[in-house]
TrEMBL record:
Organism: Pseudonocardia xishanensis
SUPFAM superfamilies in UniProt: Homeodomain-like (SSF46689)
Domain HTH tetR-type: 24-84, 215-275
Highest taxon of source: Bacteria
Protein name: TetR/AcrR family transcriptional regulator
Tagged with keyword Coiled coil: no
Feature: DNA-binding region: 47-66, 238-257
Alphabetical list of InterPro entries matching this protein: DNA-bd_HTH_TetR-type_CS (IPR023772), Homeodomain-like_sf (IPR009057), HTH-type_TetR-like_transc_reg (IPR050109), HTH_TetR (IPR001647)
Keywords: DNA-binding
Amino acid sequence: MWATVRETLMPAELSVPARGTRPRNRRALITAAAVELFARVGFSGVAMSDIARSVNVAPSALYRHFPGKTELFVAAARATLSPFAEHLAAASDTPLDRLVVELGALAATHRTAGVLWQREARLLPAEVRREVRADLRAVARLLAERIRRERPGLDAERADLLAWSALAAMASASFHRLKGPETVLPAVLLRIVHTGFGEPAGAAVEPVATGVAPHSRRERILRAASVLFADRGYPAVTIDDVGEAAGISGPSVYHHFAGKQELLLAALDRGDEWLWMELGTALAAARDESDALHRLLDSYVRLASRRSEMVAVVLGELRDLPAAEVHRARQSQHDYVTEWTELLRAVRPELDAVAARTEVQAALMVVTAGAQTPHLVRRPGFGREVRAVAEAVLLPS
């Protein structure tokens, strides 16, 4: 079921061979190159010829091992999951605390993994996406079983949430370039697997089960586009898809937006402004930095739970924008996380800037990934419980 650990990125063992040679580990070389390129450029931006060039072979050599790019992506995704699956399977007698510390170290070493699990896999055809997701569920199930073994009073659903939250925190290292996650992630994972589910300090933040469609045609188009971009990825969505989802003809979309890229920019701006508006509201209503951090966590859980597509677009759909827009969006994201980081440092002054930012990234990913995992977000009490996990990451008792 699992790719071997040798198929993950290990530069010392998987050096690029001279052209014309036939190394015995060619499949592993190809898979390793695919992992790096898919993580850095994205599934839609990588061609088989790019991967062939990176391992110094003709494209035809790739097709001897993989029928196409989709199959190669599946192999790459499995290769990034395999160290975690194999470690969990082999450590059945390892105490939970030691196990999660080891998993944190693995996540810090294999920092490309989360991008493939959390972002790029959704660009696959639905049936292939389910195949990759099944591998991720298997890892989560192994971890949930270990958590319940050492916390027998915890019910299966909460153990499952903690397992998925730990995977999300490990994946967070893929989405930033901060140094030293190996010193922060293990402690974060320990807090996650030992999260208590008493009454959190913040307000109840349950997702809304139903909603009412907007009347404005422009707003319907924008909401439909956001959902489709989040679910399938920008490159896979057509204007006709957007029109159909909005209940109008595809060409009618052009009465409101000049094209698909303008739609993406509007969706990004909407999500970005919503995040900043919620942050500003939390700061304005707060008594102090601790209260502000609790209020901000409440608002982020509400937004991610109710409008997960908006958060997904803000975090994942930048590569198809002009360079100036990419820079603007990334700067806004950086500044937003900085606000969280400075609040956290005011509450926990023992943290340096890098450690605080790493913890913030992990907590945000716990909420974001949880809200984008259908079987989690549909559960009664999801908002309150995922908030308790994120609070445990940021504010250990």
